[in-house]
């Protein structure tokens, strides 16, 4: 079975169910066909990604992009990024923080932990489309981090 880039899910990690609903609408408004895989926290995301790795799932089924909120109970977005940073098999997947926090310390710490971008909730359809399109063109997370997209909120490039 062949997979297209449109089959790869966009992983959203956020404890607020309303964010998942809104992001699903944003995907459709952006014309992005990828499915949205929503998990309610960092520990759930660690378990799901660990299972993909353990089962040696095809990279074609791995998330195209990981969007993670910072402020979550049990395992914060920063804690999840720290875990993900140590998982070499997922190193090519872009990690984008999607947060309502504009605290410069949060932005800086996210980048220290391997985030490739930081977007304030909620990006415009054009910004989201550009990020998804670029990630889908088989660019590495490092290339994504150095590419200029339309400036929106606290989107920064490292």
* Secondary structure: number of strands: 5
Radius of gyration: 14 Å
Mean pLDDT: 80
Instruction: Give me the strand/helix succession.
Output: EHEHEHEHEHH
Chain oligomer state: single chain
CATH superfamily: Response regulator
Helix content: 25-40%
- For the termini, the CA-CA separation is 36 Å
Principal-axes shape call:
globular
State the CATH architecture: 3-Layer(aba) Sandwich
Percent in strands: 5-15%
CATH class, anyone? Alpha Beta
Outline the biggest β-sheet: 5 strands, parallel
Low-confidence stretches: 144-158
Structural class: alpha/beta
Strand order of the largest sheet: 2-1-3-4-5
Give a structural overview.
With 158 residues, the protein is an alpha/beta fold. The chain has a single domain, classed as Response regulator (Rossmann fold, 3-Layer(aba) Sandwich), CATH 3.40.50. The protein is built from six helices and five strands. Strands 2-1-3-4-5 form a five-stranded parallel sheet, sandwiched between helices. Helix 3 links the parallel strand 3 and strand 4. It is globular and about 40 Å long. The C terminus is likely disordered.
